[in-house]
Amino acid sequence: MVTKQDYYEVLQISREADETEIKSAYRKLALKYHPDVNPGDKEAEEKFKEVAEAYEVLSDADKRQMYDRYGHDGLNGGGAGGFGGGFGGFGDIFDIFFNGAAQGRGRSAVQRGADMRYDLEVTLEEAYKGVEKTARIQRIETCETCSGNGAAPGTKPTTCTTCSGQGQIRHTQNTILGTFATMSPCTRCGGSGRIVQTPCVTCNGQGRLRKAREFTINVRPGVDDGMRFQYPGEGESGALGGPPGDLYVFFHVKKHPQFERQGQELFTEAPISFTQAALGDEITVATVGGEQGTIVVPEGTQTGTTFRMRGFGMPDVHGRGSKGDLHVSVKVDVPTRLSDEEKKLLRQLAVLRSERPLHEQKSIFDRVKEAVKEAVAPSHED
Ligand SMILES: [Zn+2]
Ligand SMILES: [Zn+2]
């Protein structure tokens, strides 16, 4: 990708420029590079787009703030205004000159279809293995009965006589900067250039209609919560043969009762008995992929000790083959409800380890008292 130029540099203004300065800088540059003034000049066209884009951002207080704080990334990261096509094309030069707005008035009725968003929830297991999901979406599509021209089968739209089928009407105007030709949409045919005499009944002559569709979504292994994938051209159909919009699928990964996830790393807890902790053992751990992994718990393992199982984490969503690790934190279960026999054995163990059973131990307070008594008591040798 080409590095984007700073919006303030594009408009040749300081970062402190106020609304009026931004507007006047924009008007000056937009007029200089407008395609109507530079017919066929690709470079000017590019410049014009840059200028319009910079203005679109800097003239909007919220977008400007995002841009000041995060730069270009702040505007593309899926937040406010992040997706949806953004800048929409050339405005009418007179709009720029007289109103300072490049947007709002299209030059013809041909429109790109709207982008769509679909939210898909998957389980952690599905995110691990990858899965195919069927989404039911409602979207505006080109009418099949009339192939999108809006005329009943067997009939054809006729050419609009007002605009000779152009969809636009050309005006020339004189300004202090010279003579400009501008186009405005034909009001009779709505910019389509055609008149439908007998409308198609399926779509009421609209050429498009809302349809329920099933759409297959390929969930890639390793997909993470908050990721979004773009399906170009799978959004709504455009009006009058305009290109379709895009479909964006937003993924949500459900919380798992056993595993916690951080990127490709997974975290889990495994209970072990206190004899396993004391003597050491090999224990099996269930992984998110369904396999049983084993870890060797050495003798004297403390609760909270973490073991790493390499390659049992989440796969790389970009398909590079690497997998994260599974971090297993062992939790030593202290037995409750012991039998008399077990209690007896534990007491013997305590004696062996020279630990006095709890009820025989003196409190620190008692021991301090004893120590004081001994120190104060007169010695027999005196
Ligand atoms: Zn139709
Ligand atoms: Zn017309």
Notes on the protein architecture:
- By secondary structure, the chain is of the alpha+beta class.
- It folds into four domains: 105 residues, Orthogonal Bundle (Helix Hairpins); 109 residues, Sandwich (HSP40/DNAj peptide-binding domain); 74 residues, Urease metallochaperone UreE, N-terminal domain (HSP40/DNAj peptide-binding domain, Sandwich), CATH 2.60.260.20; 37 residues, no CATH class.
- It is built from ten helices and 15 strands.
- It has a four-stranded mixed beta sheet with strand order 10-11-15-14. It has a three-stranded mixed beta sheet with strand order 1-9-8. Strands 2-7 form a two-stranded antiparallel ribbon.
- β12 and β13 form a beta hairpin.
- α2 packs antiparallel against α3.
- It binds zinc ion (2 copies).
Overall number of strands: 15
Output mean pLDDT.
82
The ordered string of helix (H) and strand (E) elements is HHHHHHEHEEEEEEEEEEHEEEEHH
Q: Hetero groups bound?
A: zinc ion
What is the rounded Rg? 36 Å
At CATH level 3, the topology of the largest domain is HSP40/DNAj peptide-binding domain
| Chain oligomer state | single chain
Number of helices: 10
Domain unit count: 4
Lateral arrangement of strands in the main beta sheet:
10-11-15-14
Amount of helix: 10-25%
CATH architecture label of the largest domain? Sandwich
Instruction: Identify the CATH homologous superfamily of the largest domain.
Output: Urease metallochaperone UreE, N-terminal domain
Low-pLDDT runs of 5+ residues are 77-89, 98-108
| N/C terminus separation | 96 Å
Largest sheet: 4 strands, mixed
Structural class comes to: alpha+beta
